[in-house]
Structure formats: C-alpha cells, structure tokens
Amino acid sequence: MNNNLESLSAVEEVELAPYHTLSLPDSTYEVLKQSAARYGSNAAMDFFLSADNMDDFVSISYNELFGNITRCANMFRAHGIDQNNMVALILPNLPETHYAIWGGEAAGTVLSLNPLLEAEQLSSLLKTAGVRWLVTLGPTPGSDIWEKSLQACEGVDTLEGIFQINLSTYLSGFKSAFISGSAAISRLKSSVKVKNFNKELQKYRADRLEFSMPGGNDIASCFCTGGTTGLPKIARRPHSAEVYDAWAVGRMISAQLTEGVSVFCGLPLFHVNGQIVTGLASWMRGAKVILGTPQGYRGEGVIPRFWEIVERFNVAAFSGVPTLYAALLNQPMEGRDLSSLEAAFCGAAPMPKELFRQFQDRTGIPIIEGYGLTEGTCASSLNPGLSENTIGSIGIRLPYQDMMCIVLDDDGNYLRDADVNEVGAVSIKGPNVFAGYMEPSHNKGIWIERNGETWLNTGDLGRQDADGYFWLTGRKKELIIRGGHNIDPKTIEEAMHEHPKVRLAAAVGRPDAYAGELPVVYVELEDGAKCTVDELVAFAKDNISEKAAWPKAIQVLEMMPVTPVGKIFKPALQMLEIEHVIRAEASSKGASIQSLEVKQHAQRGLLAEVKLAQASSELLHALDQYAFEYDIV
C-alpha cells in the first residue's frame, strides 16, 4: 500500500494531529535506542570494502549498531566530550563512522568534515570550532587521510587527542598500522594523545549510557555550509531538528522506507543527505543501509557495477546527485534483476528535465526529487514524481514545516507574501530549522520577521503554484554547485584579486550537461594593463587551493557589468554563460541560430529565447541535458 504524502492536501491531513502528539524521541540516540528495541536482530547495515568483492561484506544488526554507538558515546564522555565540547570526524564511509556520528551526538557535539579538503582548510575549521578530539582514519594503503589529518591538527590549541580507526578489520592480510602517541610527537604538541579507536571502544559498556541522555534543544551536530571551498560557515543543529527531519522524510516516502528493505548509501557521511536520508531516517523505519565502499559512489567499480550491487543486495532505494544519474545511464542494465528497486532520490543540485525523463524511461524507476539545506537539517520539500507536469519542481513541503515565498524590500526585510506563481525568497519555518551559526555575525540577514514569526531565508528564489508545488527560479546566494560540490565564488574571486593586473573579478557557474555547473571567472584589468588568459589561468591554479574551484575558463571584459550602486551584476554574467553554451552546442550540431536572447523571466528565472534558421532535433536534445530554461521562438 502506498502511504506516501503525494499532495499538499495529504500533508495538511497529517497536520490535523498536533505536532506534539507525535511524541517523537528527544534525541538521535533515543531514535536508535527505540529502533534497536523494535528491530533487534534484524540487519541494520551491510558494509563491503570493494565493489570487486562485494560478497565479502560485514553485516551489523540493530542491536550491534546501537551497542557500538553506546560504547562510543561512553568512550567520548570519558575523554571529556560533553555538550560544551566538540569531536570532529575526518572519515570515509565506514561502520565506525556511524558509531562516531551518533555516539558523538549522544555525548556532545559532532563536526563532520570532508576528507577531500586540503589540510589548511581542515585546520582552519578545527581551530574555529575549538575541537577537543578528532576521529580519523589511520595509515591505510591508497589513502592520504592520516597524513592530512596530522597536518591539519598542527596548531589546534584545543585539541587533546586523536582516535585512529584501523581498517585491518576489513583488510585481510593488512597488518595494523597504528601509530602511537610517541611516534606522532614530532607532528603534534606533546600533550596530544593518539589512541586506537577500535581497541579503545571495547573498554566501554554497550548496554546503557553512563551519563544522562541529551535533550531536544542540545546541539547534536555542526556542519560546514556556504560552500566547501573558502572558509565555510558552521551551522549548529539541535537533536530535535535531526529527529524531526528523519521522521518527516520517512513519512513522506513511507512506501519506500519500510522494515527490511535495503537502502544504498553512496553519498559521503560528512554530508547531511548521507547521514539523514540513508542513515537515521532509514533506521527509524527499520530499513537496512548498504554502505558501499569507504569512498561511496567515488569508489573504484561502484558506478560500473552499480546495477550488480542493486541485484546482489536487493536494493529498494538509493540517493544521489544529478551527475550520478547521468553516469548510471551509461551502465548496462541488461540481464540484471532490478525488481527490488522502487525509487531513487535526487538532491543537492537541480536535475535537468531531459535527464529526469531519460532515467525514468529507461529504468522505470520513479525519481523523488528533494530540496533542502544544511540550515534546514536536510530536506524541506519532496517531489513525488507523479506527473510529467511537475518535472523540475522541488515538490511540496514536509508536514509541520511551513514553507513559502516572500517578497522582500531592498534591505531584505519582509514586504508581503508572494502571490501564487510570483517569485519570492524561498523561506522555511519549523522544527527542522537550525539554531544559527557558530559565529554570531554570520546570522545577520538570514532571518525574516513576518507578522511576529521568524522565518529562515534559504537564499533561493522560487515560486509556489496553485497545487502547492515549489519551483526554484534562481539563487540569491551565489554558490556554484559542481556535481553536488558547493564552491564559494569568493574563493576564486579573492585569489584573482591578488593578481596585480586584475581590478575586478567575478566567478559564476557555467551550465554543464554532466556536472550541472563549472566555475568560470570574469575579470576586468587595471587601466592600461595587459595580461593573457594563459597567465591568469596559471595564476588561478597557483593561488586557489581547492582543485574543484579552479576556473574552467577566464574571460577578460573591458568593463564589468554593475548595478546602479556599483555592485557587480552577476545575472548578466550568467546570461553570457548560458548564451555561450547554447552557441557552442549549436555549432557542434551544425545548427544555425538567427537570434538568441537570454533574459530574466518573471516566473521561470533566466530564460533563453532561441530562433533557429531551421529546426534541429539534435540541438534540442543537447539543450535538454541542461538545467536552464529555454524556448524555441
């Protein structure tokens, strides 16, 4: 029976019962405790190290999962982690990562960091957060996480110790490479202890906490947001927000998340989607999480053998970003039994309509597209994917979370509610909204006061149609989203401004059929200055530490487009990029363009109007691979 919430009226029917009558658990630890009591010996997680040897997997029951989380919580508390202290994780996807996430939230606050960041960036985040203990991967063949973590820990004055996870449990024939504290003294201050996570864990009891459970208002986790390049803001999220969002996601897609079904986790566990959708929400409803390789979808052989993984583990659902779906379309499905597969979830970046159609037509699997942000815990709306007319929409709001488009004045203050189909600032209010950023100054401008209520401005622009579906039309926040990887344009711009011949620099996203967007930068040179594009490209690579942020192209303008008050007007640059892509695709397909205009549409955002000398089905097919809107006129 399909109990999914597939319309606004269905959401409103659920809300007839007051929110407090749901009696949701107070903490993520209590969620897992209840699930262990309910599902006990059922498998909670299967983990395989390699796609080439997926039959060699470790299965962990709900009882074992909860027991190890409890051990971990007691271990952290014994080492000084409480609600006033933070434990950071620099880890790939491992069962131990889940123990550390949820055990850390029970004991104190967890900061999950991207192990692909450079050591300098990690160090800055560890210092900003005042981290007391770090959990990271020990020396492992083919991984630089241990060395990078040591570099990142240098100069972190609050750090007391490092827990080192050893993969010898999963790597047959791999000798333990545990590094003692004395061996690490040359890199760290002498007071920093280095301990073996796996061995230390066994010293603590698994049957109960040796301290009081956290409450709903206690901060469970901190996540970096505003881009994974640059110096991101750190968002603080209470237990109540994570518990609610896990419940709400599960309620919206209850037909897919049921007891005993297998949910594949390929997104990283330092990301909210990996933790909530393919973690807490799945366990809240008794599902089994398939943790596929430490690198997830990046793991060698995972995408080429994905349909084999689905068949082998009877996967019912998985979550990914648009680039994943594009890659999966190129993998052969013939001969595979995919009858277990019921749905696929997509988020993190807009999905091109044609890619959406191609995937559903080929696989027969409905794509449930979601929208959310770290500051809203994970998800705020879901599109059940029932109609051709709603492809491209981010769907309907979650139950008990309000969501609306608001028209703001020039200072960002509330002016009025947007009318049906009128573009406004997408805003949310509800139990999933975060507790603000760690740095108080970062909270300026994110809240909207509306009729005595406080709403969170997501930074996105959108409209809501008469059926309650939301449609994004643009972003006020300027993040460049490359394959789900958030790039702060300031990272690029600040580096380019260091060039002595550059007066102005502005980075925007170039539409890309595979990655969604690629970073490009426009520059205006100082008067009389001469500089080649090759020189600027070389300078960018030397001065931007994050490779994902290296600009794919640099354009030199005689004069940067600006607003009447002198600010760089980035929509004009984004229009140039859309035009560039369309002309490049037309050239490659032998199509002749008579006229092309990119303009701001009141409801659809940036819209390209293309007039062709003659019809070209090849060009239309190519343009359908992109997320931007276009009309043939």
Give a structural overview:
The protein is α/β, with parallel strands linked by helices. Helices cover 28% and strands 27% of the residues. It is built from 17 helices and 30 strands. The strands form six sheets. It has a nine-stranded mixed sheet, with helices on both faces. The protein is globular. The model is unreliable at 180-185 (pLDDT under 50).
Strand order of the largest sheet: 2-1-11-10-12-13-14-15-16
Task: Describe the largest sheet.
Answer: 9 strands, mixed
Number of strands: 30
Query: Beta-strand level of the residues, as a percent range?
Result: 25-35%
Q: How does the helix and strand content classify structurally?
A: alpha/beta
Query: If you compute it from the alpha carbons, what radius of gyration comes out, rounded to the nearest whole angstrom?
Result: 25 Å
Helix content: 25-40%
Q: What is the tally of helical segments?
A: 17
- Taking the alpha carbons of the first and last residues, their distance comes to 45 Å
The best one-word shape is globular
Q: What's the average pLDDT?
A: 90
What quaternary form is this? Answer: single chain
Unreliable segments (pLDDT under 50, ≥5 consecutive)?
180-185
Can you give me a brief rundown of this structure?
The protein is of the alpha/beta class and 633 residues long.
